[in-house]
Design brief:
Number of domains: 1
CATH architecture: 3-Layer(aba) Sandwich
Largest sheet: 7 strands, mixed
Strand order of the largest sheet: 1-7-6-5-2-3-4
CATH superfamily: Vaccinia Virus protein VP39
Structural class: alpha/beta
Order of helices and strands: EHHEHEHEHHEHEE
Mean pLDDT: 87
Strand content: 15-25%
Helix content: 25-40%
Shape: globular
Distance between the termini: 6 Å
Low-confidence stretches: none
Oligomer: single chain
CATH class: Alpha Beta
Number of strands: 7
Radius of gyration: 16 Å
Length: about 200
Amino acid sequence: MPLQRLALPDLMQAPPQPPPRVTELLETAHREIDEFIHREGRQLHGFVGSDYLAAFAAIQWIHREHLLAGHAFCEWGCGFGVVTMLASLAGMDACGIEVEPLLAERAEQLAERLEIPCDFAVGSLIPEDADRLVEFVEDIAHIDTDSPAAYDLLGLEIDDFDLIYAYPWPGEESYLEDIFEHYASRGALLLTYHGIEDLRLQRKT
């Protein structure tokens, strides 16, 4: 079934002051990410932070417009888990999937320290039975096709999620959309970040 593009408002034009818990999360996360990158001397393969405040505004708007059938959220490639935690603060049952164990560990530590309820799983966002899709993307450097899927660790499947968030690298967009279209439940939403002032929202029809 095709994906339906939904129009998002200009969420960052005169945005409201975020709640104190969101401000605390963003300030802490930005500080820890900067320190982590400085200490590592490099960015981990595939890790780039998105516009967290815009993502939070979008999740809030989606809630406000009653576009979701439920409250289950997943962040594909969650990195430090910031958007996962923002979704939790917005009232969702949030989890994040990250293939790099060190990043997932830092996400868990940050969420625990800030007392934000969410779950993180180390593994691939690609389902175990996605061989038909995997063969087309083995040459995309930022997609891990070898690690086991993370969904068993969460006790969930893709069609359990009402909203999935991702920040695709160039070349990944259509592949992530294919996974979502093939495995997500009807009515689920896919929110993707494509750079400054470019958030896209799609529904599986």
